[in-house]
Write a structure and sequence with these properties.
The protein has 142 residues and is α/β, with parallel strands linked by helices. It is 54% helix and 11% strand. It has seven helices and five strands; from the N terminus they run E-H-H-E-H-H-E-H-H-E-H-E. The chain is globular and about 35 Å long.
Length: 142
């Protein structure tokens, strides 16, 4: 069987960041491994400022202020701005998927990924799978 194509970039969602940052998370080892493989392979990890804000809020609530601050200080990913066109596309996505409970941050991630041609994501959020246009990153891709 052919090896999957190495991703050009990986979109990281809040769940991916949280898992990689919190040792008690059930996905922690896998998430750390994926991020390390990406770094070693020089595959950029990307997210939006909205994802940074969402992740920081989640870390403060569930892991504490110090953990959240350490995460911010060591972020080390490319933070992509959310453009006005991305915001418009996000609303289109929310309106056209009435049967899904996508958040605005989810929809903005999808819009940016479409705009930039990013095809792979690291998330444990079912919404990325539900959207259906992208593939989860796997260790075998590196």
């Amino acid at each position: 069987m052919a090896r999957p194509r190495r991703p050009d970039g990986i979109w990281v969602d809040t769940g991916g960041f949280f898992a990689a940052s919190v040792p008690t998370d059930r996905h922690h080892a896998e998430a750390k491994h994926l991020h390390r493989l990406a770094m070693e392979s020089r595959v950029p990890l990307l997210c939006s400022k909205w994802t940074v804000v969402e992740t920081h809020s989640l870390l403060v609530a569930r892991a504490g202020r110090e953990s959240a601050l350490r995460w911010l200080q060591g972020l080390g990913v490319l933070v992509v701005p959310v453009t006005p066109d991305d915001e418009d596309r996000s609303l289109e996505i929310l309106r056209s998927h009435e049967d899904k409970d996508f958040t605005l941050v989810d929809a903005s991630s999808f819009a940016i990924m479409e705009r930039l041609g990013i095809r792979h994501y690291h998330s444990y959020d079912r919404r990325f799978r539900q959207y259906g246009k992208f593939a989860a990153v796997a260790p075998s891709m590196f």
